[in-house]
């Protein structure tokens, strides 16, 4: 039996569907990333789980027990908001202690727990500080300590790094990961940033428009995205619409940048929704995903030639990244980023000079349903 | 002052809660109550006092001779101001603060006591100041309801002024000084209490809420 389970959860806001039949489960000790664009219903899912909103239909089960009707303060869940919501009239210690009052702990035990939590997030000696004098990163840590102090059965984080600047964000991401591992709490991590979700969560639920689009480990999502939406949201490469048709024994995909064999399916008809078409007829509404690693700057056997031009290049610690636009016949380009190892010697002709065409390895392209 | 606070706090709470409520009926209900509590501002205080005399003459509510009558009238006049000055700060409390508290195990009563109350403490003081000063200077309703043994300073001043004679004139002026002094002492006490509260709370939200409250008047 899963630790926490959602069954067909629906929620409407003034006629707009925020959650449209979400079914999902989390095992104890797991960190589930809930990933989706803004307005996809991911925060609503958290609020329903926390008891701050009620589901119109469907159930939230904890250890098989329906949580409906249980008020938030009795659920024993922790929730951390994007803006932290520290209590402005209390200092750091009092904020962390807030959740311990209801527990039948002795004052010394409470005090120990507060100090333990402050140590955990690296804020020893900050206890008496006014929370409004703290920096964003420090406030975030206090919020984390406050949520973890009462030993919640489930920790929910709603875009916890959303309000921070990118550099701080990366550091805190690493710290957050360590803290979560240390306390080994079951956690739901809501974010719109694929990188954040991938580096923190063991499993990711990708949601859009209130529906679950794909559930899987980060590497699964990257290796086999369920649809072109997943591929574009995760930024896996350039996407081109096309039509699948039979060519002899196998299937090929006609796109604006050329004809690609449907390699990933082993020459079988592409995956996706049940075919509405006769077994052998052409299927429109397919998408070709060209991953960056499919790009070759020199001709190769079996590789497919495509017109392209360089949009920009920028230097990164790992090498030079060039942004290439693959030119579709209808004037629509697909862009992707190609990494060149090394820094390149100055003066010498560079591989991107006068680039007019690239070769694409079809084995690293993917045919996806739209 | 106490009476209008005792009535104003729950009323403001109700209105603020109702206006963010989900149901249409509750929202309209809250707005109606809001409007209803504003009515005393729209009518002349003299009418108000006269209304008291006319309506409070039957057996269970015969308060015409009661010492409570004037305080009740004063609180009615002060009520809209109290509600107005509480409503804006109450609305400005981030609802997620309350939600955070409840997720940390605080039931509704504890949320009110430990989140709403401390965050509103300065607004309460401001509301009390309004009630106090309004009550001190209220004349219209009091002039109608007053009895020789139950008199307020403004009425006394009026009485003295309307009688001929040097002595009465002097008495009125002396009383005016007294009224000013009482007002000044009250305001100074409130001011002092307020700054002390600000030092301990150092709550930016309360400042902005107060600012917004001040804008209303």
How does this structure look, described?
The complex is a heterodimer of chains A (370) and B (217). With 370 residues, chain A is α+β, with helices and mostly antiparallel strands. Helices cover 23% and strands 35% of the residues of chain A. Chain A is built from 9 helices and 20 strands. Chain A has helices at residues 42-50, 72-75, 92-97, 107-120, 136-148, 166-183, 194-200, 218-223, 228-234, and strands spanning 4-13, 16-26, 31-35, 57-62, 65-66, 77-80, 154-158, 186-191, 203-208, 211-216, 238-247, 250-255, 258-261, 283-290, 295-296, 304-316, 319-327, 333-341, 357-360, 365-369. In chain A, the strands form 4 sheets. A 6-stranded mixed sheet of chain A has the order 6-7-8-3-9-10, with helices on both faces. A 5-stranded antiparallel sheet of chain A has the order 13-12-11-14-20, covered by helices on one side. In chain A, strand 7 (154-158), helix 6 (166-183) and strand 8 form a beta-alpha-beta unit. In chain A, helix 4 (107-120) packs across helix 5 (136-148). The relative contact order of chain A is 0.12. Chain B is an all-alpha fold and 217 residues long. Chain B has one domain: MetI-like fold. Chain B has helices spanning 2-19, 24-42, 45-55, 69-92, 95-103, 108-137, 140-145, 153-162, 166-201, 204-215. The longest helix of chain B has 36 residues, at 166-201. The two termini of chain B are 19 Å apart. The model of chain B is unreliable at 195-217 (pLDDT under 50). The A-B interface holds A 50, 52, 71-79, 81, 83, 85, 87-89, 98-99, 101-103, 130, 132, 146-147, 150 and B 94, 96-97, 99-107, 114-115, 118-119, 201-205.
The major pleated sheet of chain A works out as: 6 strands, mixed
Spell out the CATH superfamily of chain B.
MetI-like
What is the rounded Rg of chain A? Answer: 25 Å
Sheet with most strands: strand arrangement of chain A: 6-7-8-3-9-10
Secondary-structure-based class of chain A equals alpha+beta
CATH architecture of chain B: Orthogonal Bundle
């Amino acid at each position: 039996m899963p630790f926490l389970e959602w069954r067909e959860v629906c929620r409407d806001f003034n006629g707009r569907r925020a959650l449209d039949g979400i079914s999902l489960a989390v095992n104890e000790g797991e960190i589930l990333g809930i990933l989706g664009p803004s307005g996809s219903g991911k925060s609503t899912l958290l609020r329903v789980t926390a008891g701050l909103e009620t589901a119109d239909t469907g159930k939230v089960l904890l250890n098989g027990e329906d949580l409906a009707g249980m008020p938030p303060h009795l659920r024993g869940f922790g929730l951390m908001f994007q803006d932290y919501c520290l209590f402005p009239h209390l200092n750091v210690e009092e904020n962390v202690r807030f959740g311990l009052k209801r527990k039948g702990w002795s004052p010394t035990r409470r005090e120990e727990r507060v100090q333990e939590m402050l140590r955990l997030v690296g804020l020893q000696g900050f206890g008496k500080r006014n929370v409004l004098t703290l920096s964003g990163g420090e406030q975030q840590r206090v919020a984390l300590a406050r949520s973890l102090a009462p030993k919640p059965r489930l920790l929910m984080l709603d875009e916890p790094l959303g309000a921070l600047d990118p550099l701080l964000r990366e550091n805190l991401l690493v710290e957050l990961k360590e803290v979560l591992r240390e306390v080994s709490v079951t956690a739901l991590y809501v974010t719109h940033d694929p990188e954040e979700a991938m580096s923190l969560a063991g499993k990711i639920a990708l949601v859009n428009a209130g529906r679950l689009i794909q559930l899987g480990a980060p590497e699964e999502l990257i290796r086999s995205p369920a649809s072109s939406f997943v591929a574009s949201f995760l930024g896996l490469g350039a996407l081109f619409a096309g039509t699948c048709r039979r060519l002899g024994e196998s299937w090929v995909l006609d796109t604006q940048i050329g004809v690609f064999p449907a390699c990933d399916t082993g020459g079988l008809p592409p995956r996706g929704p049940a075919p509405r078409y006769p077994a052998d007829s052409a299927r429109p509404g397919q998408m070709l995903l060209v991953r960056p690693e499919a790009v070759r700057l020199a001709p190769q056997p079996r590789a497919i030639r495509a017109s392209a031009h360089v949009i920009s290049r920028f230097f990164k610690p790992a090498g030079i990244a060039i942004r290439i636009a693959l030119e579709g016949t209808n004037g629509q380009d697909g862009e992707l980023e190609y990494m060149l190892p090394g820094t390149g010697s100055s003066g010498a002709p560079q591989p991107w000079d006068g680039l007019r065409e690239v070769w694409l390895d079809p084995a690293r392209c993917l045919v996806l349903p739209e | 002052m106490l009476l209008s606070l005792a009535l104003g706090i729950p009323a403001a709470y109700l209105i603020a809660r109702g206006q963010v409520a989900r149901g249409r009926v509750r929202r309209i209900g809250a707005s109606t109550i809001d409007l209803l509590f504003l009515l005393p501002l729209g009518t002349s205080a003299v009418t108000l006092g006269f209304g008291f005399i006319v309506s409070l003459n039957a057996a269970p509510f015969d308060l015409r001779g009661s010492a409570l009558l004037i305080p009740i009238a004063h609180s009615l006049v002060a009520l809209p101001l109290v509600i107005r000055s509480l409503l804006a700060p109450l609305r400005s409390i981030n609802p997620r603060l309350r939600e955070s508290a409840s997720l940390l195990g605080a039931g509704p009563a504890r949320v009110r006591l430990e989140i709403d109350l401390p965050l509103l403490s300065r607004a309460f003081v401001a509301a009390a100041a309004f009630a106090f000063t309004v009550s001190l200077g209220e004349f219209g309703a009091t002039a109608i309801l007053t009895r020789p043994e139950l008199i307020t300073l403004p009425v006394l001043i009026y009485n003295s002024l309307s009688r001929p004679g040097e002595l009465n004139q002097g008495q009125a002026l002396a009383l005016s000084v007294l009224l000013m002094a009482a007002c000044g002492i009250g305001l100074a006490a409130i001011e002092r209490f307020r700054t002390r509260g600000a030092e301990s709370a150092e709550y930016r939200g309360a400042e902005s809420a107060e600012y917004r409250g001040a804008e209303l008047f």
